[in-house]
Amino acid sequence: MSEPSAKKDDRPIVWFDIDNTLYSASTKISQAMGQRIHAYFLTLGLDDDAASELHHRYYTQYGLALRGLTRHHQIDPIDFDRKCDGSLPLEDMIFPSESLRQLFLDIDRSKFRVWALTNAYRTHAERVLKILNLTDQIDGLVFCDYAEPNFVCKPEPAFYEQALKVANISDPTLCYFIDDNKSNVLAAKQLGWGRCVHFCEHGLESVEGGKKLVINNSDVGSSEIVSVTNLEELRSVWPEVFKQ
Ligand SMILES: [Mg+2]
Known about the structure:
Helix content is about 35%, strand content about 10%. The protein is of the alpha/beta class. It folds into 2 domains: about 15-25 and about 95-240, Rossmann fold (3-Layer(aba) Sandwich); about 30-90, DNA polymerase, domain 1. The protein is globular, with a radius of gyration of 17 Å. The relative contact order is 0.20. The site of magnesium ion has 7 residues, from loops.
């Protein structure tokens, strides 16, 4: 699912989700992805309505439409990735941001590591980081390994547990995490991750295929999750993370 395990390092880790977190959902990349995924469902022989229904069901049930596809259909996940994420004209949709890069540069690296934690496959994740000019700011990438049979993804606990192993960190309280998908944030919180933040842009909610994500309520109250509408707010939410 990701890099070989990192060297032992006692620094806490700041984990960033990538899609719709490092760039705005207003880019409509999710919708473009959703259209491609919908087209892929149509190739399974479903009509338009059935494809929409199944796409939405798999997304809400598994956190990723592809997770449902690989469980219930004979499909090649790498082919899926190439046709969906791989065909997105990302270079025309997202652009590097000086302020975002500065935010990463201002993280105190003597005290913190910075990793990305994504449900995308490696190729998409690396492509986005490169376009955003952040490749050199990420110490490690934990991605969803579509090549692995029965791969796991957020918000499945096993995905977070694997992430800790790969990053070679045993204490989840040393993990900071930000994601635009509230279910993913709640899952991390339930697993004892230290400082979890929901990135929720004004007027924009997590969507895939144009449908609103159903947020699972859990026994971890939403009130324990800090919400930010702009990544700059992390400077005040996590002051210890940034150079003084
Ligand atoms: Mg996201």
